[in-house]
Amino acid sequence: MRAFGAVLKEEREKHSFSINQLEKETKIKKTYLVALENQTWDKLPEFPIVVGFVRLISSQLGVKQNNLVALLRRDYPPANLTKKISPPREVFLKGITPKVWGIMVAVLLLLMGVGYLVFQYVDYNRNPKLVLTAPVEGVVVKSGTKINLEGKTDTDASVFFNNQAMYINHEGVFKTEYTVLESTVLSVTAISRAGKKTEVAREVKVSQ
């Protein structure tokens, strides 16, 4: 029964590759290539990486990957090097009991709940959003002109203009008309449920 290293060397020489040439083509260090052929396993990295080396070499030599990998698995590693094989992930999970899983899930849910409460608290105590889309700042109109006063705020806020509450639709949009008689500053105030206020003003000028 031929050993893995002997077969690998035979295939390399059969395809007229020197160690240096194979190193250049595969980018695998010469020391690793020599270690594979000599089966000096302690000179090689972790087993999954070694398998990758063998697959790459097989492709370069035009040899069936499965054949060389099967020989590698048969000969590598000896008993004193089994620790080089990375255990599957399941091994690490075996130590986690259902009780531990339950605690982990409970902690995760607790953190999510706390995060949600913090978000709600911050959102509740912030100043409401308020945007006036009309009129534009410094617009000039004739006396007696009706202009639109409109904008958008939070859906749960209240909006006041000239101390009068304005209707807000389900999207937070409000709109009303105002008759301009003289140059003035229009002030709109939005008040949140927590009593926080945001005020926006627009200057409207009357032409002479």
Give average pLDDT, whole number. Answer: 86
**What profile does the largest beta sheet have?**
5 strands, mixed
Termini separation: 109 Å
CATH-wise, what's the superfamily of the largest domain? lambda repressor-like DNA-binding domains
Q: Helicity, in percent?
A: 40-55%
Tally of discrete structural domains: 3
Regarding CATH, which class of the largest domain?
Mainly Alpha
Overall outline = elongated
Low-confidence stretches: 80-85, 87-92
Spatial order of strands in the largest sheet: 2-8-7-4-5
Give me the number of helical elements: 7
Tell me which oligomeric state these chains represent.
Answer: single chain
- What is the strand tally? 8
CATH topology of the largest domain: 434 Repressor (Amino-terminal Domain)
Produce a short descriptive summary.
The chain has 208 residues and is an alpha+beta fold. The protein is 42% helix and 24% strand. The protein has 3 domains: 4-86, lambda repressor-like DNA-binding domains (434 Repressor (Amino-terminal Domain)); 90-125; 130-206, Immunoglobulin-like.
Verbal overview:
It comes from Candidatus Woesebacteria bacterium RIFOXYA1_FULL_43_9. Keywords: Membrane, Transmembrane, Transmembrane helix. It holds the Pfam family HTH_25. This is HTH cro/C1-type domain-containing protein. The structure is a single chain. The chain has 208 residues and is of the alpha+beta class. The chain has helices at 4-14, 19-26, 30-38, 47-61, 65-75, 89-93, 98-125; strands at 130-134, 139-141, 145-153, 158-161, 164-166, 173-180, 184-191, 197-206. It folds into three domains: 4-86, lambda repressor-like DNA-binding domains (434 Repressor (Amino-terminal Domain), Orthogonal Bundle); 90-125; 130-206, Immunoglobulin-like (Sandwich), CATH 2.60.40.10. Helices cover 42% and strands 24% of the residues. The protein is elongated, with a radius of gyration of 38 Å. Residues 80-85 and 87-92 have low confidence and may be disordered.
